[in-house]
Amino acid sequence: MKIQVTQEDIDKGQPIDCFKCPVALATSRILGQETQVRSDFIIFDSVWYDMPIEVCNFIKKFDNAENARPLEFDINLKGE
Prior knowledge:
Layout: E1 2-5, H1 7-12, H2 22-31, E2 36-37, E3 41-44, E4 47-50, H3 53-63, E5 71-74
């Protein structure tokens, strides 16, 4: 599944908040269900999914108030 983190997600995102960071906002919007994002995985429907390294780097930049830019990544959910 393709996840697009938009500038709007970045603008609305909150640093160091696993439910309101830009990646959590984007995945929740696309999946239609609240997701939780940790430093290197996403929790959706009680299952943990590894994130690509570029997403982990994006989260670190965002949490450290560095210039985080929109990104797109794929995540393999069960059944895909």
